[in-house]
Design goal:
4-stranded antiparallel β-sheet; mainly beta; 10 strands; DUF2911; 2 helices; DUF2911 domain-containing protein; 194 residues
Length: 194
């Protein structure tokens, strides 16, 4: 008789637990591993990684960068303060690689790979090529590693360019132009293949 009562009690407890799980969705979903957050590849990247390149004669010029969006923000003089070094892209520093020497602003940029930085300003920008091309943002930037600096005048447009974009354009068999545009600002500079 004791065993029959014990078995009946066990059955009642098991049935009670099953009913509790049905009536309490928290218990039911607490260990449900079939539902998950959307995977990151389904989310749109805010600053996609991209590049710009061109062959000019036998020179290959390649610019590698992440392209942030404006997203209804004031960029220059707002998000990016004037008169401060910027890595000219998002995440890792933007870099330029050339397999031939380039003449820019009357100076020679030797063949190699360089971090590309700028110092924005309302009147003029400083363009910088730096030995340290592999760094996060400008975390490890130091002026001592600069190999070339020069000034350019920004062009301002009323039309907004949503994503940062670089271009390398061929102008002749031995020359070209590099430009960068984002928000309402475009800068550019010519170069010659040496």
């Amino acid at each position: 008789m004791k065993y029959k009562i014990l078995i009946i009690l066990l059955v009642v407890v098991v049935i009670g637990c099953k009913n509790e799980e049905k009536n309490n969705p928290k218990i039911e979903t607490e260990h449900d591993h079939t539902q998950s957050e959307p995977k990151s590849e389904n989310k749109k990247t805010l600053s996609p990684h991209t590049s710009a390149m061109a062959m000019i004669g036998d020179a290959h010029i390649h610019i590698d960068y992440s392209s942030p969006g404006v997203r209804d923000r004031i960029i220059f003089g707002g998000l990016l303060a004037y008169d401060q070094v910027w890595q000219a892209g998002a995440h890792m520093a933007t870099w330029l690689e050339t397999n031939k020497d380039l003449e820019i602003d009357g100076k020679v940029l030797k063949a190699g790979k360089y971090g590309f930085f700028v110092i924005p300003n309302e009147e003029e920008w400083t363009v910088i090529f730096n030995r340290n091309w592999n760094q996060h943002g400008k975390d490890d930037y130091t002026e001592n590693d600069d190999v070339l600096r020069f000034k350019v005048t920004p062009k301002i447009s009323e039309k907004i360019k949503e994503h940062l974009e670089y271009k390398v354009n061929k102008t002749t068999e031995t020359s070209g132009k590099i430009s960068m545009g984002w928000e309402k600002v475009t800068i550019g500079f010519p170069f010659e293949i040496k």
